[in-house]
Write a structure and sequence with these properties.
Length: about 475
Amino acid sequence: MSSERVDLTQFVKTYDVRGLVGSQLTDEVVEAFGAAFVDEVDAAGSEVVVGHDMRDSSPGFAAAFARGAQARGGNVVSIGLCSTDQSYFASGHLNAPAAMFTASHNPATYNGIKLSRAGARGISLDTGLATIRDRATHYLADGIRAVQTPGGYRELDVLADYAAYLRKLVDLSGIRPVKIVVDAGNGMGGMTVPAVLGEAAGLPKLPIEIVPLYFELDGTFPNHEANPLEPANLVDLQRAVVEHEADLGLAFDGDADRCFVVDEKGAAVNPSAVTAIVALREIARARAADPDGELCVIHNLITSRAVPEAIENAGAIPVRTRVGHSLIKDEMAATGAIFGGEHSAHYYFRDFWGADNGMLAAMHVLAEFGANDEPMSALSRRYSPYHQSGEINSTVTDVPSAYARVIEGFAGAELDELDGLTVSGYDDGEFWWFNVRPSNTEPLLRLNVEAGTRDLMERIRDRALGIIRG
């Protein structure tokens, strides 16, 4: 397929670019994106950060993007191999727009681009990505018109500065000795973990013993997919934590911007519990700096009810939002929230330019664990008092009809349409709620259920699924 005939709408997603290498993403397509990006963010004569992950196609695509950016006057700052949150750090630290080449947790046949405005501000279809897509389409058809003075190019290693910055935000030097297993999934965590939690970046030794699992950077993902959201991809970590008698385990996705936690027994820690733990620490940190300030924390609507309860009990304001990366970033900026958490294990920090950072969330968990005597399982249990179904997908081609069936089937319950359909109520004094949302990319409805007891959760889950699947 020639680049002129590639339909960019097929792989420019809501929050990023994500497509098949060779058939959708080619050097010519990526070069057009580089030119279009510089135009959209008005970066002619200014710096543009370009970084990439360990996928085989990533270095070539980063170089192609740089050529397109330079042609339109952008001064490229190449930061080379990096995690996505390193790209955000560079964007914030340099106050420059950034492009990160990664397909996150997708298989090796994919690649993509995560784009940021200066200061790590997100770009979605509604806030510039659609315009970039359309400009790129134009450049593919008519060629890129180079400006009279093309942009420059320099290389910059930000790993040490990134690691030092995170160490300033979360001080781990005084925690009790901790033994952890880290599964990097052959992704960028294999580079960032030794720098931030170890001594690879020249920082002082921490009281943390790291047992590495799949730290070799390998974009073919030879051991398992770098997607810890799938339970099958946590099995090796869970086994290793028990085998090494570690205190806890961490699993990063391919571009290392998401982090999942398992306890000393190998059980997965609910990301909502991580959200609550980090939220309370960020609230305490902000209170220490400004005792009387009004603080708010963002959580999306499928996090556990325990999250807003913890935020309120700490004297802060919980702000409930829709699900989605750029939506959370926008809400962080609009509200001045100190922290935001999603059940998908994306964690956003005001002091990290409102961007998400899985490493920073992991450091908060280590700090909280390391300041107490209880095991990780007890810490997890404290912030997981309710029972959740996890996300369950159903194939549905007629979403409005499915919604109508749900509304009729749960007549009398409270309804909320902030994001999909949220239904809530009480049964013999015990609360329950569920949310059902359509997928952006597939004919699926995604169901999440929570209740005060396991029996009630299972009854509501089964009743909802029966109605949805008709």
